[in-house]
Amino acid sequence: MADTTTTEFSERLAGIRLRRTALWTVFISYIPVIWVALKIGGDGLAIVVGILWLLMASAGGVMVSFSLCPRCGNRFHMKGISTSWGSRCVHCKLGLDGQG
Ligand SMILES: [Zn+2]
User: Were both Cys, which of 5, 23, 76, 99 would link to 60 (CB 3.0–4.6 Å)?
Assistant: First the structure.
């Protein structure tokens, strides 16, 4: 059991939500960003942007996957080698809203 104050608990859940939002924003932005890169810079710029996007998506995926649950201290989204990006801790079922 993780030892946290109520404020720290809320801040850690907010951190997980922020990382998830950043990751989904990166995923959703792919097509429009590549489209804009193709329009203004052609294939060369699109390749550079695509590589940057891949790096950002990879970093975001790692940051989300390795987020620690403020209640149980385990990885919020990972159990063993499997990853679930659901809104509840895969170990103690704590929701991102602090319920559960
Ligand atoms: Zn947990």
Answer: 23
Q: How far is the CA of 91 from the centre of ligand 1 (A)?
A: 5
- Amino acid identity for residue 91 in this structure: H
State pTM to two decimals: 0.81
Distance 54 CA to ligand 1 centre (A): 29
**Is 90 exceeded by the pLDDT of residue 24?**
yes
Cα 100 to ligand 1 centre (Å): 10
Q: Output the 3-class SS for the chain.
A: CCCCCHHHHHHHHHHHHHHHHHHHHHHHHHHHHHHHHHHHHHHHHHHHHHHHHHHHHHHHHHHHHCCECCCCCCECCEECCEECCCCECCCCCCECCCCC
